[in-house]
Amino acid sequence: MTVLTLQRAPRARQEIRPGAPEETMAIASSATLIIALVCGWMLVQLLVLGGITQQRSQHLLYAEFRSQLAQATAPTGELDYNQKPIAPGSPVALLSIPKLGLQQVVVDGTASGDLMAGPGHLRSTPMPGQAGVSVVMGRASTYGAPFRELPDLVKGDHITVQNATGTVDYVVDDVRGAGDPIPAAPSGATAGRLTLVTARGSGFLSALRPGAAIYVDASTDKATSTGVVAAAVPTSEQVMGRDTAALPLLVLLLAALAGLVLAVSVARRHVRAVLVWTCAAPVAVALAWGVTDQVIRLLPNLM
Amino acid sequence: MTRMTRLLRYSAVLSVFAWVAAAVLVLLPSSAGSAVAADSEAQSQTKTLTRDYFDASGSPVTKTNKVTVHIDRHTDIQANERVHITWSGAHPTGGRTTNPFGAGGMEQEYPVMIMECRGDTDTVTPQTCWTDTSEERTQSSLADPAADDAVWLDDKGNGDADNQRISGLTDAEADAIPDGDCTFGKTLAAHITPFQAADGKISYGCSDNDMPPEAAQTSSTPPNEIEAFTDAHGNGSDDFEVRTATENASLGCSATVQCSIVVVPIEGISCTSPAQQQCNLTGNYQAGQLNDGLGADLTVSPKLWWSPSNWDNRFVFPLQLALPPSVCALSTTAGSPVAFYGSELLSQAALQWTPAYCLNKSRFNWQDNVTSDDAGFQLMQNGGAVAAEVSGRGADDADVGYAPTAVTGWGIAFEIDKPDGTQLMSLKLDARLLAKLLTESYPGSTLGASRPGLANNPYSINLDPEFQELNPGLDVRHFSEAASTLLAISNSSAVMQQVTSYIAADPEAMEWIDGKPDPWGMKVNPAYKGLKLPVTTWPLKDGWYPKESGSACLNDNPAPYLQKIASPLSSLRLISQAMFYYWPNVSTVCQFNSSTGLYELSRVPQQGIGSRFMLGLVDLGDAARYDLPVAALQAEPGHYVGANAAGMAAAVELATPAPTAAIDADKLSTKAKKQAEKQAQAAAGLLPETLDQTAFRSSGSAYPGAMVVYTAAKTTGLDKTTAARVAQFIRVSSTEGQVPGRGNGQLPDGYLPITKTGATARLYAQAQAVASVIAAQKVPQEPAASNPSASGSATASTSASASPSAVASGDTSGAAPPGSGSAPAPAAVGTAAPAAGGSVDTSSAPLVRTAAITSGLGGGLLPLLLIVGLFSGAVALGGRVWLHLKGAR
């Protein structure tokens, strides 16, 4: 007796004829897929992967700052001990806010790219912990969002800053937004004020909509002496500034990405899909990561 | 799917991606990136000098000269100060040498020897008089009386000891001669004049090996003793440089060790017998004849200045030296020095003021350190210095008060001799001549004339018809490299700023720099054509190397020739020093250095008196101290004003007070506006006045080189003691420190006194006002001053209201890192309370509110991404499912 195995014949694939509505739908779905991928990637990068990057940066900065403090080579101003300007992105202070459970290394510079590594110190003000008004900016929703909970601070909370010269304890004076009065300048040779700047949103999905700058002022009367301060900073380092210096590298990376797509499409005609994607996927991820990082630099620095 | 379709599909995907990217970029419009500051002092003495000798026939002759010697100052003499000495009635000098200093003038006849000696009128001896070489101290000749070479043995005034074969030493000194030194054979007679140093050490001076240590310094510090020239009328003059123990420790003159200037007009040895052939000579040279190397008669030469015939004719002028600058460092009661940093223009006043502070218990140990204006100002801003001495505004000075401290200025000093050998005492210059000198447009020599573009220019300034019109009667035949340049400063300097402003205010000078030839056809050096003035550092732009110099040395040692002529120095003091040594800094002498085996370029030698031509940029304090004549500069075309009190007073009268800052009044009430105006005026009262060169140009009597030195200190943030000290300094220096004189705490020559009434009344008032403000350490309420900051930096604000996008909080201290030289920092936004007070007075002061800074992108991007992503994902998924159902996949 023969057993008849009944196999369903493979369903014949219909060729998509040019002009047919299927073709339109195919193109449309591919395009929207790409858009969805791009948007999704950016969201993931900003909210998740960026946080990972920021944590890693903080880890490395902490180690660097610790050893600088131990060797007494930590910067006390915009010039290092060789009288050369310090590089943006170098660690200058350690900021901790016990109430929020926050401990971050503050880097020098407040451009969008600098704030991807953690809170940044505005270069035209004295270093955190020094006499005078020192300004530190931080991101509110992306790249780890260190300053997200800053609006929760109230008068009387403590902030501790460890800079090259010593540890300074600040007490929060106020949290102010647009229209609130600015407190008087600190008077006295050792009076200092720390102003933390970040952004806040309101309404639906407020955590994802940091649009308005807010300021937290904290003061001390035991500040350390002031070091060298930069004369002026470009607009990219001001509050909500954008750094158009990212454009050239962005264009380069986009071109590389386009080239990758072309290469994939050519390769797919000759090689199996699995092989092609195995090679291309990591490159695509890396380029996409780079592109997004550059795009973030074009966005406001307090996001 | 056909290959074509697949390709199309992929290119569609690609283009979608490209559109997405483009859309992202379009959403972010690029903005222009912006790129990330003086008794009577004078004394005269008259003596009748005689020389008794025998003429050719053997009859006795007595030559008489009634000589009067006059000095212009003798008290409170500072180190290197030059005393002007004039004499009349002396015997005319013959055999004139170009270098009459030290041993260089020994081969003259009948000069006037001027030396610095230790001791006063009764205690000076030849043994305490300083000479630089052994030739001036020891004479030896054949002892044979028949030949009469040892002329000093014939001196009528000799005592027994002086008639010995070896004379000049006491027995004790003779015994103590080191072995091998001062040995003279039996056939020789010698007179030795040992030198006794201040510490008692004896240097025998028989040879240059046994001279005091300072004598070996002739290469870097020329000697100050001189065998000066007397003209045919019996008149002569000299500027004698006095040295203290700091410059010459062996001589050891100081405020406590008495020294004198000794003037010995050489009359010649008085002889005892007509048989003394050499003694009775009267000289080889005619009066005023130049030295031709054939030798002077020993009997009338300065080599025998110590011989009684000459030495007894001495004029002694005791000097009283001022306290040295080190008196404050050595004082134990003065306290640690409090340093003010800044302008070199204040140095000569500081010399006289410093002891009045550190020696006064109720004051502090004030110290003045010289740096450039900018560096001193930054130090003051950073807190590294208590106050700065500047001549103009500094960067980011919202909380700085400027108190006028001294009125002085710059000038063009000149050491020029007329064709008859006497010194020129007045000179006229205008802006175009200064431009010609500074732009290296005079070639200086035929080598320089081979530079393209300079062939038709006069070789040096004395050959320039423009100069000759202003100053007739000078040498018009000889050119020199030193006469083709102005010795100036190489560093950044407020003085250079003023000099170039003076040139910039003269349209003829600027046209000439832009390339238009002057009426005689001289053109600017092509390297400097179109130079924009004013500048704070004069650029050396001519890098032309001579190709065929005709000298092996120069070919091996290529150097930009005109720059080597210009050779600026790094400070005004060094320029003054070069001027009073008549030593141009021109470095074009090419010599073979045998020790290194290389050709080297070095400085030209000192200019000889009688043929000097040198110009240098100096400050007026130094010019007065070192007796350097200063040129009259053109103010209004045709009017030449000298650097005297009248000229400086007229210039100060033309100074305009600082303008009041503009107020943005639309957000303020009337009361607040009035308040803000008052504050702005108070703030302007702390700022320096402007000395405008164009204003000088329309005045017939203002000296264009006038400058005011201000003490700049913070009006907020200083501790009490420091603020009190600065205020004390300002008050003392504007009252007691403005009394003219040479004593402690007084104002030296070269400065115009600041007085309560008269041309400087406003400066006096400002000094008192600023002193009060600094003592109080309160900030007068002021709106932020408008700043010429870089374009694109959105932080400048001129209103008292909140500034957009600036750091929205109180004052930001912004001292630029040294060497940045970029736009000044944004000024502080006005604060709501005085800095010293603790309470906020909101009723009277304008409140500053936080600006609203929002970002649409920040507020909308993430939700947008989310929504778009979800939407597209849904569409894509839906599409795929539909296609799958349709069987296409």
What does this structure look like?
The complex is a heterodimer of chains A (303) and B (889). In chain A, helix 1 (21-71) packs across helix 3 and helix 2 packs antiparallel against helix 3. Chain A has three helices and eight strands, in the order H-E-E-E-E-E-E-E-E-H-H. By secondary structure, chain A is α+β, with helices and mostly antiparallel strands. The termini of chain A are far apart. Helix content of chain A is 32%, strand content 18%. In chain A, 50% of the residues are buried. Chain B has 889 residues and is an alpha+beta fold. Chain B contains 21 helices and 24 strands. In chain B, the strands form seven sheets. Chain B has a six-stranded mixed beta sheet with strand order 15-14-16-24-17-21, with helices on both faces. Chain B has a four-stranded antiparallel beta sheet with strand order 1-2-3-11, with no helix packed on it. Chain B has a four-stranded antiparallel beta sheet with strand order 10-4-12-13, with no helix packed on it. In chain B, helix 2 links the parallel strand 6 and strand 7. In chain B, helix 7 crosses helix 10 and helix 19 (720-734) runs antiparallel to helix 20. The longest helix of chain B has 31 residues, at 856-886. The chains are: A alpha+beta (303), B alpha+beta (889). Chains A and B meet through helix 1, strand 4, strand 7, strand 8 and helix 2 of A and helix 1 and helix 21 of B.
Short synopsis of the structure:
The complex is a heterodimer of chains A (303) and B (889). With 303 residues, chain A is of the alpha+beta class.
Chain oligomer state:
heterodimer
Order of strands across the main sheet of chain B? 15-14-16-24-17-21
Q: Helicity of chain B, in percent?
A: 10-25%
Proportion of residues in β-strands of chain B = 15-25%
Uncertain segments of chain A of ≥5 residues (pLDDT<50)? none
Q: Kindly report how far apart the N and C termini of chain B lie.
A: 10 Å
Shape call of chain A: elongated
Side-by-side strand order of the widest sheet of chain A: 1-2-3-4-7-8-6-5
SS content category of chain B? alpha+beta
Tell me the overall shape of chain B: elongated
- State the order of secondary-structure elements of chain A, H for helix, E for strand: HEEEEEEEEHH
**What's the β-strand tally of chain A?**
8
The description of the largest β-sheet of chain A is: 8 strands, mixed, barrel
Query: Main beta sheet of chain B, described?
Result: 6 strands, mixed
What's the mean pLDDT score of chain A? Answer: 88
